[in-house]
Amino acid sequence: MRVLVVGGGGREHALVWKIAQSPLVKKVYCAPGNPGIARQAECVPLRADDLVGILQFVREKAIDLTVVGPEDPLSMGITDELAPKGLKVFGPTRAAAELESSKVFAKRLMHKHSIPTAAFHIFEDAHDAHAHVDRAGAPIVVKADGLAKGKGVIVCGTIAEAHEAVRQIMEQRIFGKAGDRVIIEECLRGEEASILAVTDGRAILAMEPAQDHKRIFDGDKGPNTGGMGAYSPVPRITPALRDEVERKVFVPTVHAMRRENRRYQGVLYAGIMVTGAGPQVLEFNVRWGDPEAQPLVMRMKSDLVPVLLAAAEGSLNDARIEWDPRSAICVVMASGGYPGDYVQGKPIEGLNEAAKLKDVVVFHAGTAMSGGRVVTSGGRVLGVTALGKTIAEARERAYAAVDKVRFDGAQFRRDIGHHAL
Ligand code: AMP
To answer: How far apart are CA 136 and CA 101, in angstroms?
Structure first.
């Protein structure tokens, strides 16, 4: 088989790394990829959102399966572009991707089908939203409806913060059109986890739970980021709890999407808060999490390609994933200043030394080649990922590898996995 992976970040490196190990696969391409991905795949200079270019490439190279990493091409309709032409693609259609691209759509669907989620109100008018904040009080959560690069959710400890959030999203329009509508919802408390499932629109294959670390600093302090690290499994997410999420969240959601003529195929990611009243959905994503994908693929013992193919073909019923019982931890190394402004182009040293360590893989996220050297080219630069018999052992290995890698201004958290210890 010839497989094309669309995207060029840490998640896509994880997918390429796993797919390239499949005996079914002769060749992996990645659009656009990155220098780490280039070790396992041929990188092609096409942007992930260049749907016309990607369609042409898939036809030219007779690609057997296209696996889409990021949400943007999905919400732009890459699957709608490829699938009707008989080209196999893993990832939802544009209409199904609204589960992520419109939080209003997702909340209304959950409400209609009694899928557990925080109580909410939807506003199209800033005046009404402010009035609601005054009535409801704090803490409270304000969310922009549309895609906002993971920054559209503001958890507000005070009424003043909530008013400021409404002002920024609806009046100053810091997220543009994504802020045409806001959701104001109840603030939930509990333990968070990411549970991802592969589905073909009927059958559901839930994966092992993972947990990410969104804040930039140790102790979950500072601003939110795209994710500073992740680990799997999550001891507090017991098999019983995972079954409950499958029953109460995945089954009704996949069923509801089919009934709404938006059959969902691909990875469905449920961000869950485990509250006193059971698991509640914080958000849906329509793709693998980044950095959750990194520890998940390292824990997969069986071939992932038959699962991706079965989902794309609508024959997932008998698919299985065999999991390594060991733990995996991914520590993200980011550029100095991230998630604010940061400098790019810093040479990265020690990559080979780190990769030599046992059960360690250094996934590339924001890297580029410059003058024959690997340099930084994004906020999140690397996802240093390790396996270990316990979380503690995986952590030790991951940080031993992190300590070998150097670039100017590098920042990373020292406490990834601390919730599990
Ligand atoms: P989301 O992008 O919707 O996952 O939101 C980002 C983060 O905001 C989540 O990972 C949670 O930590 C937090 N969050 C979102 N919704 C709520 C809520 N209703 N209550 C408390 N925290 C929330």
So the answer is: 26
